[in-house]
Structures are given as C-alpha cells and as structure tokens.
C-alpha cells in the first residue's frame, strides 16, 4: 500500500495483511484493519477534515481518542447516516463512507467561511445582543439562526439497525484498561472478586501500545498483552472493549455504551451495571496551548502524534516542530527523530534538564521561547517563534506542530458521583480529592500520577484495597519494575501573546478574547462563562479546552484557578446515540399497544385509530367521501340530536375496598366522600403535593367500604403509582386495598336524548330519572349480561355508561347496536368525544392539566373541601408562583366560517403577524362545533375572566396564521346542565 505518511513497518494495532478501502467526501482511500478513520486519513496525507462550527475555519485531526474536538464527520448516507462521529473513534472497515460536515458546497470551498470575515460581529454572546433590533425582525432572524445552528445533519429516514440493553452486576468495575486499569483488574481478579473491566478502545493497553517503555526489562506492550491474556482466563473477570462508561449515578449504578464491532444489524448496546466498587483508571488528556493560529490543520497534541506513530505506523508530518511547557513533549520529539524527522523543540522553560539529552540526539531545542503564531491556509506550513523576554521573532518551516501544555486527568465520572476535586499546582490540574465522599477510587494518571511505575503500583494498590474491602483474601501483589518516558516539570503557560485568533475551545470556536469579553460584561462565574461563550458545551465536553478557559477566566478576574472553580460535570461523558438509549424500547415493542375487547370490530367497521396513552382507540368512523372534519361533525350532530355509542373501556378503573376506603379518598381528592350514599357517585379532582391538578374522575360508592373509582385513560398508571406510593410510605396504617381493574371491565357509553329509550329496552331494571338519577349506579342485566350502569355524562347529554366483564364486551356492543338501529344509533370515536367535551367545557383533560394549573385556574374551586386535609391542600393555601399566577380558563369562539385554529397557538392582543408581542396564554383545546357551526376552543389566559367579551387573536408564528376570536365563558352548550339531567 502506497500511503505517503505510512511507515513501512510498525503500528501495534495494525493488521497489515488486511488492507481496507473506504471513501472520504467521495474520494477513494485505503488503510488497514486496526486503523481508525483519523489514522487512515493522516496516512493518506488528508489534513483538512471538517469546518468549525461558528467561523467555518478549516480543521484537522487534533487528538487521538474521545477528546477529539475538530474531526467530526458524517458516516454513511440515507437511512444509516450518522452525524458528528469523531474520526479518531471510528474503526475503519471496508466500504466505509465518510463525509465532512458544516460546509457548503465543498470542504475546500465553503461559503460559510465568509462568517470568519465578519468575526467581530460574532463575539461571545452575539446572539443575545445582535438580534435585539429592529424588534419586528426577530422572527426573520430566528429562521436564519435555526438553519445555522447545530452540528451535522440528522438522518431523515428510520434507523434500520438494532440496539440492545443489558443489565450487569459486579463487585468491582474498572474503567480504563491502561497500565493502572490492567493492574487494578489483575489484583482484584486474582483475589477472586467479580471484576468488570471496560475500555473504549478495541484493544487493551492504553498508553502502553507500541511504547518504548519497559516493564521488567521487556517491552511494556508484552506485559499489557500478558495481563490481558491472564484476565481472559479468569472466570470471575469480564472484559468489555469498545465500551465507554458515560454516566455514574447513585448507589453504584453505572451506564456503559458498547459499540458492536461486526455491525451485523446490531450497532450498540447499553449496559446498566450495579457495582460495589468503582476503580476509575480513565487516564488523562494532554492539554493544547493557546496561541494565534492554534486551530490550523496540522496542529495536534504531542501525545496524539506519538500515538499515531505507535498504534498505526503513521507520521503526522515530516518536518515537525514541538511546542511544549513540560517534559512530555520531548518524548514525541525523540520518537519523531528516531523515524528520520528533523525535529525542532520550542520550550518556554529556562534550560530544562531534559534538553541536553534531546540536543545529544540531534534535536534542535529553543528554550525560553514560544510559538507566537502558526502560519498556513490549508494547513500549517510554518511557525513564528519568539523569546519570552521579547524581541524579534524567527520563522521555522514545518508541516506539523505538536503542542504539549500539560495533562488534565479525566475526572468527569468522579465528579458525576459528586466527588470533590482539588487543584495540584505542580501539574496545574484538578485531581480527585481522596477525602471526598464519592464511591469512586481513582488510580494512575487519572489521579495525577504520570510516571509509569507509579501508575502500575497505584493500580495494584487500588485493586487490592477494593477486593479486601469486599472481604476477599488478597494475595500479596508485586509491582513489576517499570521504566517509562520522562514527563512532568511543568511550567504553566496559559496564553501566548501575539496577534490573531487564539482558540480555547476548538469545537465551538471560543477564543481567548471571548473569555475576556465575557468577564468584562459581568459573566465571572464559571457556569455563566460556559453558557455565555459555549465553552465546553460541544460533544467533546471541553476535555481539551476547559482548563485553559478556567485559567484565562481566573487571570482576567484576579482569582486563582481553584477559586474560579469548575463547571458541573454531567452525563454523558461522551455522546451516546438516542437509538442506543431507547434500544428495543421503540415502537410497539417498547410501548406495547393495548386494545379494548372491540378492537377487531372497530377495524372491520372502518375506524381510523389514534394512540391515547397506552391504548389504540378509534378516532372517527368515516363514511364514503368523508374527511375527518365531515365525519366528526356527523358523529357529534348524531349525539346532540339522537343517540351515539362510544367505546370507553380504556378509562382507568380501580376497585377500592376496606374499612378506610372513604378515608383514603378524603385524603386523595379535594372533595368530601364520607357522607356519599351507597349507589351514588361524585366527580372528584386529585392534586399533586404542589397544589397542581393531577387527575380527575368519577367515583361511585358501591357499599359502605367499597368504591368504583375512575380516572383518565392516559393517567391510569401514574394515578396507581401515586396511590401505591402514598399507601406504602405515608399512610401504611390505612386498612384499604386498591386493585386496578381497567382490563377487567369493558365499558360503553350511550349518549344523546334518545339514549334512555335504547337502554330501557335492553335492561331488566328501571332506568328512569327517578330510579337512576344523575351521578348514580345500578347493577342488573343489560341484554342478559350482568352489568353496572352508571348515570354520568362527558358529552353534556343524557348519558349512561355500561360496564360488563371484558369477555362480554362485544356481545353487549352488538346488542346495543341492534337495539339502537331503529333510533339511527351512531358509533363515534374519541375525536368527536373531545369535541363534545369542549362544547360542554369540561376542563380537566389534556393540556388543561399540564402540571401548572390549580383548581382555581380551571374554575373548580367550588369543589374544594373547606378545612379538609388532602394532598395539595397546604400548597393551595399559598400564593401561586408569579409565573403561573392569574391564569384562568376561558372559551374562544371563532368567526362564522372562519379559519381553523392553528396548532401550537397562543392568544395575543393584536394581529402583528410575524412580529413578537406579549402572549396572554396558550390555547389548550380546540375543534369545530357543529352546534355553534364555528371553531371553538379553550385557553388559559392571564386574568382570563376579565377578558370575556374581548376580541383577540390566536397567533401561531410557525404556521404564519393569526385567527380572530372572541373570548367567552368556557361552557358553550347547555350551561345549566338541563339536557344531561333530563
């Protein structure tokens, strides 16, 4: 294979006997099995890989692993398109298609790069300030901003691949399989503890891969291979390569993401692991240095350049310059020199001891010097070097600039577990505080130890201690004698003076000037700085840039770095696909659809279905030539003028029994229940503890100690959880049993002025108004089937709800249809049921109970039991939160033959189409009223009662509609309830 930057031998991860072909931006390339996309592109001399987010500057590969901020690509196309993949973490495979992102029309000629010419207009916080004027143009600005925002383009087709979830249990979870991680796993595994070892790379060894370091006088790679082989033979040890621990939660709960190598239909697996101990051996990231032009392609961290040489046999450049403030940079310089490169080292320190060995090896060393500027267009071709003391600069030609600004331990998972960090001045980094209450123990360079022998010893010590703490008999561990490359002796250098853009966060184009501007404008808190500048908010989570950013903030505000503090570390540590999180919990497999006993009948009779919570329900029953509105109008008119039948089996139902049954209801609902007579019912409203309406329903008393309780379809499971939680934790003394019986009963509702005639012909008991008044229940036979008949109405008409056992549901339904044939009985669905509900103004459903409404908001304050003690009563006595205060339910009436109300609309005072104005409140429900022959709706308006009679507008900017309405009472039909009591 003829790759211009591939060495003829070497590469610890490569299988040179397995060549692979792939493409990048439709250009053919080649690599080997074991390559990453980044290493293969570097081997073929590809330097520009992507464009930056804000300024669309050319960007290349910077890092070696998950810290990569710049080389983000899109993989595949069509249904398998996957954006924002780090080229450093993409394993090469034959036929791989990769594409650059954030550019148009091509990577080399990107129109978006014009934003770089206007960079003074796009400083930190520009979006907060630039688009304030003129006020009426915001909606125009918004479209442009939304089009420019975001990284990559999401796929538009359904994902054909599969994902998996598994649960795991272990004694000790070791995160990271470098020297410390391997040592910790060996120590714990030899003691007999159950060990789970995870590493995000396909091969174990970490920094030991291909290194010239030695362990027991043999190449360190030999020791790593032997350790991995021994762990593989242990039955109590499980190894998961290609696996990232991305989230740590309470009580030893850790979430892992495993990438599947063979891509045979299964792409990713999520592991939910419970562990008794966590050993964090996640290593450290080498920090870049901040100077002008530090984002040019060809500017890479020194450790990444070293890694590409050792793992993949790739020279990232042939005329390199190493810019360092510590000894680590010299390891890269020595490695490059051994492969024939003419290397120059620029060291900001004064006569470092390691420089003499470098000079003896033929490496040019410039001390007390800095790279003040990297030069180039497509990629770096020279650097300007200046003395720290000032004076004229000199120019060094190069095609690669290796930068080493010290090391930042990967403490993210430790901090997620609420572990405290402490600042170590010698290494200029935050490390885990050993006195912290976190359940995680850090080991190796994750703890600030950068000497190989120290890392191995720390790993064995940590693994031994973890196993001993769990009661395992631990054999004595002997730390092998290790000799590694020199490191340390850091002299912090946070910002190099010089003209030009100096980038701190390469992914979000945050510059040193942005941080200074944010501080001058008052954003001195590190959390404010993060949000104002977007520092560390990209997919890399600031792994390379955060410490530099904190240092610059501390400097400009006159504080120390530990005083400035760190931002909050949150999962995920690295990006995780939504498909993996959902896994097989998608579609009907993830949320099984429930059907009533009449599902087959509904399907045979032309129902159009809609999902309602867990249920699939008939939405409407169109006849030939009818669209949805025509069908719904016909069904609603039939209910208002004759009789209609609807399947309401999905309503949540509970059987509540026991001597304290009434007491339970008194505590759950705002209503009173003790004096409710047997055979009678009452409408009840349930609150959350914050006083917000949770659910509603009708409760029928069957006996002194037994109730039939109903709730909304979509809230049934939540209501059951709510009740069970209270009974188990707050009221365990109550003698009461709550049994969910939704599936036990089929229910059909007869509605309309002729409903009594239809039912009377089928019953063996009296259903007159005197025998079965409103809000009462009777048991008897309906069409020869034992049934409970309740006199309740959701439609506002005379209505009866008939409950029978589920297996008798279809027989009951067919009998009612036959009995109602002479009355032209019409079957209707939930769309018509909702329309009837809006006409009647029943408030407690859907968006009206969005978790921010009180009974007073909905006009239900008359139901509140005075002096009662129920869930939410104390909160009701408090003033409502200011943001929610004064919202009141009102009705909205459209003009005759007016426009349909747009979805997502808010009520506003004026028709200022496409111009911002104050919103008075959201439209919660709407539909066409055949009774009023116009659109009607319900809304929650601030001080809504005072708006009744006013002419306002429903504005929906996303659809460009603005519809005139008149505010009315929220009940449009039979306000006195004469028809439902008839």
Task: Report on this structure.
This protein has 982 residues and is of the alpha+beta class. Among the domains are: 15-117, Ubiquitin-like (UB roll); 162-284 and 409-483, 3-Layer(bba) Sandwich (FAD/NAD(P)-binding domain), CATH 3.50.50; 500-589, Orthogonal Bundle (Arc Repressor Mutant, subunit A), CATH 1.10.10.1100; 599-650 and 744-836, Gyrase A, domain 2; 652-740, Aminomethyltransferase beta-barrel domains (Alpha-Beta Plaits, 2-Layer Sandwich). 23% of the residues lie in helices and 28% in strands. It is built from 25 helices and 50 strands. Strands 8, 9, 12, 13, 14, 15 and 28 form a seven-stranded mixed β-sheet that branches. The termini are far apart. The model has no long low-confidence stretch (mean pLDDT 91).
Please mark out the parts with pLDDT under 50 across 5 or more consecutive residues, or reply none.
none
CATH fold category name of the domain at 162-284 and 409-483: FAD/NAD(P)-binding domain
**Helix percent band:** 10-25%
Helix segment tally: 25
- Return the CATH architecture of the domain at 162-284 and 409-483: 3-Layer(bba) Sandwich
What class would the helix/strand composition place it in?
A: alpha+beta
The CATH homologous superfamily name of the domain at 162-284 and 409-483 equals FAD/NAD(P)-binding domain
Reported for the largest beta sheet, the result is: 7 strands, mixed
Kindly provide the radius of gyration, computed on alpha-carbon positions and rounded to a whole number of angstroms. Answer: 35 Å
What is the number of strand segments?
Answer: 50
Overall shape: elongated
Mean pLDDT: 91
Under CATH at level 1, the class of the domain at 162-284 and 409-483 stands as Alpha Beta
Strand content: 25-35%
CA(first)-CA(last) distance: 90 Å
């Amino acid at each position: 294979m003829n790759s211009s930057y591939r060495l003829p031998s070497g590469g610890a991860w490569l299988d040179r006997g397995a060549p692979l072909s792939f493409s990048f931006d439709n250009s053919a390339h080649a690599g080997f099995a074991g390559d990453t996309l980044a290493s293969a592109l570097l081997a073929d001399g590809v330097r520009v890989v992507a464009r930056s987010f804000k300024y669309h500057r050319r960007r290349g590969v910077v890092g070696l692993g998950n810290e990569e901020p710049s080389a983000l690509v899109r993989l595949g196309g069509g249904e398998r398109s996957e954006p924002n993949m780090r080229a450093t973490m993409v394993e090469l495979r034959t036929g791989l298609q990769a594409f650059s992102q954030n550019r148009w029309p091509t990577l080399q000629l990107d129109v978006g790069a014009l934003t770089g010419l206007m960079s003074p207009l796009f400083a930190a916080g520009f979006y907060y300030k630039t688009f304030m004027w003129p006020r009426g143009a915001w909606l125009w600005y918004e479209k442009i901003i939304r089009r420019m925002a975001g990284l990559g383009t999401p796929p538009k087709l359904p994902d054909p691949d599969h994902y998996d979830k598994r649960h795991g249990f272990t004694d000790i979870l070791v995160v990271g399989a470098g020297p410390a991680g391997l040592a910790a796993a060996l120590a714990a595994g030899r003691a007999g503890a159950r060990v789970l070892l995870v590493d995000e790379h396909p091969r174990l060894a970490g920094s030991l891969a291909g290194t010239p370091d030695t362990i027991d006088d043999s190449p360190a790679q030999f020791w790593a291979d032997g350790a991995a082989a021994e762990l593989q033979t242990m039955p109590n040890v499980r190894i998961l390569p290609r696996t990232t621990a991305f989230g740590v939660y309470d009580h030893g709960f850790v979430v892992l993401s495993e990438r599947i190598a063979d891509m045979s239909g299964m792409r990713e697996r999520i592991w939910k692991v419970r562990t008794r101990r966590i050993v964090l051996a996640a290593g450290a990231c080498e920090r870049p240095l901040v100077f002008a032009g530090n984002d040019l392609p060809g500017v890479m961290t020194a450790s990444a350049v070293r890694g590409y040489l050792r793992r993949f046999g790739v020279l990232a450049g042939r005329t390199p310059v190493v810019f360092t403030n510590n000894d680590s940079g010299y390891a890269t310089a020595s490695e490059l020199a051994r492969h024939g490169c003419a290397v120059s080292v620029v060291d900001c320190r004064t006569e470092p001891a390691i420089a003499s060995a470098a000079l003896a090896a033929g490496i040019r060393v410039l001390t007390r010097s800095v790279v003040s500027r990297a030069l180039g267009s497509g990629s770096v071709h020279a650097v300007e070097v200046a003395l720290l003391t000032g004076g004229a600069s000199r120019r060094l030609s190069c095609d690669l600039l290796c930068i080493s600004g010290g090391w930042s331990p990967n403490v993210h998972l430790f901090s997620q577990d609420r572990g405290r960090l402490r600042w170590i001045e010698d290494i200029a980094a935050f490390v885990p505080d050993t006195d912290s209450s976190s359940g995680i123990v850090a080991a190796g360079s994750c703890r600030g130890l950068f000497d190989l022998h120290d890392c191995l010893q720390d790993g064995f010590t940590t693994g031994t201690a973890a196993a001993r703490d769990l009661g395992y008999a631990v054999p004595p561990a002997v730390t092998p004698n290790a000799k590694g490359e020199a490191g340390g002796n850091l002299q912090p250098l946070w910002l190099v003076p010089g003209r030009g853009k100096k980038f701190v966060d390469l992914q979000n184009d945050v510059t040193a000037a942005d941080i200074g501007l944010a501080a001058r404008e008052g954003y001195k808190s590190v959390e404010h700085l993060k949000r104002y500048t977007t520092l560390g908010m990209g997919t890399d989570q600031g792994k390379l840039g955060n410490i530099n950013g904190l240092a610059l903030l501390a400097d400009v505000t006159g504080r120390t770095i530990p005083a400035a503090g760190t931002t909050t570390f949150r999962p995920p540590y690295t990006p995780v696909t939504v498909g993996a999180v959902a896994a097989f919990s998608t579609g009907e497999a993830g949320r099984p659809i429930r059907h009533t006993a009449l599902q087959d009948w509904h399907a045979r009779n032309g129902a159009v279905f809609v999902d309602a919570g867990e249920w699939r329900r008939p939405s409407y029953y169109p006849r030939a030539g009818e669209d949805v509105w025509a069908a719904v109008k016909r069904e609603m008119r039939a209910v208002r003028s004759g009789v209609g039948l609807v399947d309401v089996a999905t309503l949540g139902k509970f059987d509540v029994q026991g001597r304290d049954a009434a007491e339970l209801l008194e505590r759950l609902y705002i209503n009173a229940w003790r004096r409710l007579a047997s055979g009678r019912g009452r409408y009840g409203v349930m609150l959350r503890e914050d006083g917000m309406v949770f659910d509603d329903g009708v409760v029928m008393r069957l006996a002194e100690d037994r109730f039939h309780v109903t709730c909304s379809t979509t809230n049934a499971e939540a209501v059951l959880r709510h009740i069970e939680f209270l009974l188990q934790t707050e009221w365990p003394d109550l003698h009461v049993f709550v049994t969910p019986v939704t599936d036990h009963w089929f229910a059909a509702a007869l509605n309309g002025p002729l409903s009594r005639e239809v039912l009377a012909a089928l019953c063996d008991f009296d259903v007159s108004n005197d025998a079965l008044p409103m809000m009462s229940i009777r048991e008897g036979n309906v069409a020869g089937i034992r049934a409970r008949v309740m006199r309740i109405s959701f439609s506002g008409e005379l209505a009866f709800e008939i409950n029978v056992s589920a297996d008798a549901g279809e027989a009951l339904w067919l009998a009612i249809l036959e009995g109602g044939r002479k009355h032209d009985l019409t079957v209707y669905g939930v769309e018509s049921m909702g329309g009837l509900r809006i006409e009647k103004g029943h408030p407690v459903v859907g968006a009206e109970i969005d978790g921010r409404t009180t009974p007073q908001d909905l006009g239900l304050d008359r139901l509140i039991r005075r002096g009662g003690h129920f869930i939410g009563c104390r909160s009701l006595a408090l003033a409502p939160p200011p943001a929610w205060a004064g919202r009141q339910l009102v009705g909205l009436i459209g003009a005759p033959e007016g426009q349909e109300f747009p979805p997502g609309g808010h009520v506003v005072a004026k028709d200022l189409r496409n111009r911002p104005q104050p919103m008075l409140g959201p439209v919660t429900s709407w539909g066409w009223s055949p009774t009023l022959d116009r659109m009607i709706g319900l809304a929650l308006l601030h001080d809504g009662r005072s708006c009744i009679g006013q002419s306002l507008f429903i504005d929906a900017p996303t659809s460009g509609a603005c519809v005139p309405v008149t505010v009315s009472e929220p009940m449009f039909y039979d306000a006195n309830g004469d028809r439902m009591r008839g």
